[in-house]
Structures
1.
Amino acid sequence: MDTLPFYQTATYSVTPLGQRCGLIQWVEGSTPLFQLYWKWRVRRTKFLAELEEIKLNKQQANTNNSTPSTKRGGLIDISQKHKSNVKDKSSTILSTEPTRPIEHFFDKLKEVFAENVCPFLFINFSILQDIAKQRVADRRRWPPKLMLRVLQDLIAETPRDILAKEIWMHSSTSGSWWERTQNFARTTAVSSMIGALFGLGDRHLDNVLINLSTGQVVHVDWNVCFGKGKQLRVPEIVEFRLTGNIMHALGPTKVEGIFRQSCERVLEMLRGDKRIILFLLETFKFDAMLDLSLLQGPSTTRKTNDEMASEIIHRIEQKLLGYELIYNKSGEKDVEGSEMASGMLRLPKENLGDEDEIKNNIELQTFKREQSSTPSSEWIESAQLSVEDQVDLLINEATDLSNLSLMYEGWTAWV
């Protein structure tokens, strides 16, 4: 049982100097999670390059020690051939510089698509062009099952304990390790519940920092807030970051121990202070320096600052009352329940027809699916939940692989 009588979160000062600039305090002693992940990628890439070099050296040694053919001219010709082969292979040694996460994602995406596209499975041609050019496209047109496969493959290639090992390596005793792990679980719970309440998004690896000396989590870059992440071109499905490496660093019980207890207590305290929170948010309606227009979605009807503030306050009040917005996974299917919802068309071989007819069928079905996928059908509101049920829902949604597979690749959901 977690007996800590209080919870805290790291803060830092922000001093506005104008409408478009200001000063932000430097957070000492904190390391971005991306830096830890990148260090592992560099070590792994160097290790694979060294393995490849050892393999080529052994191959060259075996070639030099092998007995060449005794045919006329064979001694010179075969030995020269082997030397040229070794030279060519040595030029293919893996680079010691790993690819960036986005490039890594698209490499895996192309690989998975190539493995799964067969003669009787057709995908909208524009989707393949988006993948080839690494463009940010409408993800609703991408096959969800294949996107899930991409995420699963990336997860299988990435250790789950990168962060947990870093905390362990920075701890001199088992007692200090346990203290840092508890602190990490508590501060992660605090930031997760606050982030879920205020709609904080863009929680990629560079925006989540950790102090390895204390285990405290620090979040930076609050630009995407108040649900703005749900309105991005690649909408954010989860409320906070609770991926594999985060879970494994929470301690032996992962989400079922101190983390869940802390989430419930923090949410209970936020609900208890609902009137104070809403009162403070009322200032949004009267702050002339505040521009909420950037939080508006791609709607033709533009709202005033007062209307936007009222909408934000109402959304937060609903969360404090126990109502949550859930991504409607059933909305990925079209009205006929066919596989067109995923952007795929499966046809029997005997009914393929010519290429133009197939392409027209694909575009027609994709158009029907896009027409039925309205923004209002993407999110549904839950029933009123208790504190425990609301925390349980948020955790389940944040750890659901089908949700994580729809996140923007720069979010690196596999880490």
Note: DSSP finds 14 helices and nine strands in the chain.
2.
Amino acid sequence: MKIKGSDYASLIICLVFSVVGYFISFYPGFFIFGFGFIILSFSLFVKFKAVKNFNNHFHSVSVEGGRKFSQSLILFYFVTIGLIISGSGVLVTAGNNFVMLLCGVVILVFGLVMFFLKLFRFSGNNFIIFEESGLRVGRNRYTFLIQWDSITGVQLGEWNNVPYVFLQVFLEEGVERTIDSKNLERDKKKFRKSCEWNQDFFGSSFAFSTSQYGIDIALFYKAILQYWQQPIKRKELVPKKKIQ
């Protein structure tokens, strides 16, 4: 994994279009590309940290067993509120430009739907937990366990310039049997569709982009490799009892 010229190019393009849009009164473009510049700047910062940690040769990575790494609500609401502001700005300044009006509506509606689904808890809070037996993953209203011994491959890569950790397992049906849910049949179908989607787009059973959990992707990758390849290390993932 490394910083590529396309990362800088995307950032520069968004900056140029947002500045040009502002000075020539093309305000819809300013709102769209300005928000894009902010998001890309954050993504590039995260990637810089990941590249630095990936190039550091750590002897081991220690993870607190049983700790729940939850989806960052601050980051989620920052993105959704940014979409709402950006979409509203486009609508206010688009005038009679039908294409820009349509873009503004799509951005605004998407941001509002995401915001209210999370606000009223229609969408669950994703999380991951390192356990002695495997990696427990929480998705919308259900959880499953990827057992260490069921993993057949781990790869650090990118998709659309976003760093991902890709996991391949021996049998996805084995992971499916670990699903814990109040509506088992419904969530088994969702799980199978998710795996099919991952195989089609990523070529792997599971794909993790960990910035939403506040975890550095390079350290996450090294931790997965460590507990997969060194079973003796898994004992440290047993939750420690706290003094009452």
Note: Residues 27-55 form the longest helix (29 residues).
3.
Amino acid sequence: MDDQTRIMHALGGVGLGVQGGVQGGMQGVQVAMHGHEGADGDARKQDIGDILHQIMAITDQSLDEAQAKKHGLNCHRMKPALFSVLCEIKEKTGLSIRGAQEEDPPDPQLMRLDNMLLAEGVSGPEKGGGSAAAAAAAAAAAGGASDNSIEHSDYRAKLSQIRQIYHTELEKYEQACNEFTTHVMNLLREQSRTRPISPKEIERMVGIIHRKFSSIQMQLKQSTCEAVMILRSRFLDARRKRRNFSKQATEILNEYFYSHLSNPYPSEEAKEELAKKCSITVSQGVGSTITVSQVSNWFGNKRIRYKKNIGKFQEEANLYAAKTAVTAAHAAAVQNSQASSPSTPNSGFQMKDEEFQLDSAESKNSLLTNMFTGGYPTACYQSDSRIQ
């Protein structure tokens, strides 16, 4: 019995009953627990108290003390017997929970987030995914407007920034998860030298850790998806709702812009007048109206595009200048003809506006040439109102 007590104290309070050696592990424990009475029973109670006291004092031990205890346990001659007993206990208690831990199916919400991030070009390898998604959405939204490149580049820059933040945070998450998983695996492998731990149990513990960390991953992906949706609503969805002006409305706005090129900032009254003219033109086409805010936005975008590429728009400016000159000359000619016509009804001659209308076969260039070279026919009457 003295040998049994000495073994129990050396193992840190783990009592093993020894009767003619260790026989069958659990059988020895039962003999030790139930084979003696009297003073031996009091000694067992004292041993259990010592065991509980040592267990409660583990957290107060220093690292050196813990290492010394572990080394003493590993070198003890009764360690194989202890390990055998623990294996039998685990075999009996583990039958009820065997197979209870099944592999969980993948989270459908996490799969939806992954699919969205992949479709938007945020996750996965960057092989033009984000740019391609932005280009496809922009092409479908605006249909080749001249300011597409500016808005498209802004969209790609914002999407690239979101992608960079996402991958940085995902890398931090994966690093923290891997570090914690490695620490737990090393701890379990170290404990497997004293108590039975199978590789499958280690894998199960790793799965539990990953499920705990998946909530952080889901929060990160959900925040990234929300940022992408906000970006789409600002740069793409708004452009889908926007309708381009009709050709006639664009002509009206361009005429005003190039006729006031020195100061292309229309007043509020001018904007309202232009909006009315454009609304009349558009209502004849698709039945929609143009607001003053849309006119202001058009002039703002037009000024930006004109400043960025003056050479490209110079030709357009010349065309509208020539058109304005033709219109002004035509109006002046009509006004002069009406002012020079005789006031008496029996004068025998009256000028009509139709005589100054541009014939469909006559070009604008020929009209300009006639006006500035004197080739256009003048009124055929003298100051005394007698017909020549």
Note: The chain has a mean pLDDT of 69.
